[in-house]
Structures are given as C-alpha cells and as structure tokens.
Design goal:
globular, alpha/beta, about 170 residues
Length: about 170
C-alpha cells in the first residue's frame, strides 16, 4: 500500500473567526495559511512524492499547489476529498452552534449524527475511505502520495484505519 500523507488545508479567516465553513465556495487561505502551505512544501521536498490530490475547495487547492509545484506535479482535484456537508450549519459561528441540542449530539455520538440538511457522519467517513482505497489501487506500494482535505474527514479516515470508533 502506498504511503498516504493526509494534509489538512492551511489557515483561513473562517478558522480564525470560529466559523464552520463547510463547503462554502470562495474561502481562501489567509496570509498565515499561505505561509503554512509553503513551509509544508519545503519540508516535504526531500520526500519521494508521486502525486498530489486535493479536495476541490479553494482552501485545499491553495494548500496543495505549493506542494505539487515542489515536485513538478499538478494538483489532481478529487471530489470525495471534500469537506463534510454540514448543511444548515454552514457559515455559522461555533459559539452559537454550541448552544444547540444537536451540537451535544454530534459531540457525544457522532456516528449517529446527520447534519441538519447535510451529510451523515458515517457517509462522510465512508466517502473518504472509498477515495483513499481507490487512490491506493492507482499507485505502486512504494509510492508516496499527498491528499489535501479537511480536519473532520481526515479524522474520520484515520479512525477507520486505526479501528477506532467515532464515538
């Protein structure tokens, strides 16, 4: 199985503002996030990276670009690496969401939770695992690939491969 580096996108202003960005288009890395992406590309430069895949959202593509450039590769957008569809919570302040009963539910039993108007947590996990499995089939076992995605989908995939429950 190829070595897969799961990378979370760099900082954006939604993170700083404690907002849940979800899949809102047009959220770009801020200055600090661009620096993070460049530093990561420099750090990875000695590694034998064969491919760079990314969620199609701007903040992930902007994180992936310097990495791909360091290896003379193109970023390959992959729809299944996209952020969890948080539905009606998209763009909301986390401080307000914490007051909801449903916030407590997702924190205590995420495996049973579906975002209002959005994706079920287990569907997100399944989607990301399926993508990783498909990418591993496309590469040789000795290859190293980079997948730039989002915090929650990455956590769910890691939990799956470690055999850990989401709850």
């Amino acid at each position: 199985m190829p070595l897969i580096l799961l990378v979370r996108h760099g900082e954006n202003d939604y993170v700083k503002e404690q907002r849940l960005p979800g899949r809102i288009p047009g959220i770009h890395l801020n200055k600090h996030g661009r620096k993070q992406a460049k530093r990561l590309a420099k750090f990875l430069k000695p590694a034998p990276v064969k491919a760079v895949y990314s969620s199609p959202l701007e903040r992930t593509m902007e994180t992936a670009q310097p990495i791909a450039k360091a290896f003379n590769l193109k970023v390959i957008p992959r729809e299944r690496l996209i952020e969890t569809d948080v539905g009606k919570w998209q763009g909301k302040k986390i401080k307000k969401l914490r007051k909801l009963d449903s916030w407590r539910k997702v924190q205590l039993n995420p495996s049973r939770f579906q975002f209002p108007g959005g994706e079920h947590i287990l569907d997100c996990q399944y989607r990301l695992v399926q993508e990783i499995e498909q990418l591993t089939e496309r590469h040789d076992p000795q290859d190293m690939i980079v997948c730039v995605s989002h915090a929650d989908p990455i956590k769910m995939a890691v939990a799956y491969y470690l055999g850990l429950p989401l709850d």
